[in-house]
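Incident review: delayed structure delivery

Summary: a single-chain prediction request sat in the queue longer than the usual turnaround. Root cause was a stuck worker, restarted by the on-call engineer. No data loss occurred. The affected request and its eventual output are reproduced below so the record is complete for anyone auditing the incident later.

Affected input:
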Amino acid sequence: MNYELYLGYWAQRYKDDLTHDIMPFWLKYGLDPKHGGVYTCLDRDGKLMDSTKSVWFQGRFGFICAFAYNHIEKKQEWLNASRSCIDFIEKHCIDEDGRMFFEVKDDGTPLRKRRYLFSECFAIIAMAEYAIATKDVRFVERANEIFQLVIRYAGTAGLLDPKYLPALESQGHSLTMILINTASRLRAACSVCCGTATTPSSLTARIDASIDALERYFVHPEYQAVLETVGPHGEFIDTCMGRTINPGHCIETAWFILEEAKYRRWDKHLTELGLTIFDWSWKWGWDEQYGGIINFRDCCNLPPQDYSQDMKFWWPQCETIIASLYAYEATGDEKYLQRHQLISDWTYAHFPDHEYGEWYGYLHRDGSVAQPAKGNIFKGPFHVPRMMIKSYQLCQEILSISH
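Output delivered after worker restart:
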């Protein structure tokens, strides 16, 4: 493989698809010019199906727009959209206790609040990335306030309702994973903007704590897997839930760790950990029969419980594209570029909607479309554009190093 031609092609493809397809689709159909923020419940052609707003996506699209502004092109409409989402969060999405809602009406009227801290994490990365774009210290300071709230709730017993009653003590992989990326994005903003009580070194320590917990509790070499749910000390829970492997989550974790390894000049331990998790998760996730990354597996090869267990969702494919490029950058091993080619060829053959734009989100195992909508409360402008921005950066970096 001529990797220079290959990576050059994909770098241009990512940039073109982002700027001519993904971002225009969401700016045209998703932005709410009346109330601010973004809608995500869009049909195949962009028609609004439900005016309920996902609070996750106010932060997610706020981040994406500023991230694209910082790394692709200084488009004012992107920065304006980021600010619109952040302002909507501040005006409408925060409860009296400082926690955030999960769903609100189009005008911001609260509808639902969940125990999870993901709305807060996505608001943090949006404000941090906007601070990098504008050099406005107020946004990094606000992001830090919310981050401290997240750490307090995550680390204080009894503040969050437990997922299960006391008969089953457990902890989940998702928050441990997402705090790595959240702290990383906030650290980048702290490095650009001064005046915050949180320092880059303290955020690095927070990342260390998350990676240590991940390695200590969720990495199970006996199954060559990262498990989604374990006991309070990492105990294996021999139930359908406890045996669940989510390859997409695990692969996302792998590239978060590889990104951190790169930040530390390819720290040996972190690089090996990230590559190990990626290698394990590729074996569990890659569908040898049909291609693509499958949703769920059981670590004992029993039937997974989740009804969507053999489907192909949009986001695991995106995470795998990013992870394969990070792994290739870390090692120079062509097997990771071959994985990139496998996942990219399959993803681009099945997910993009060439008639109406953007990507489908939900495919059957064989790659046929399960439902054609472009968004809902959980799918919207985040994983696809993040993949394109990150992968464009990685291709460019690898090519610049080779020269």
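Verification: The first strand starts at residue 53 and ends at 54.
Action items: add queue-age alerting; document worker restart procedure.
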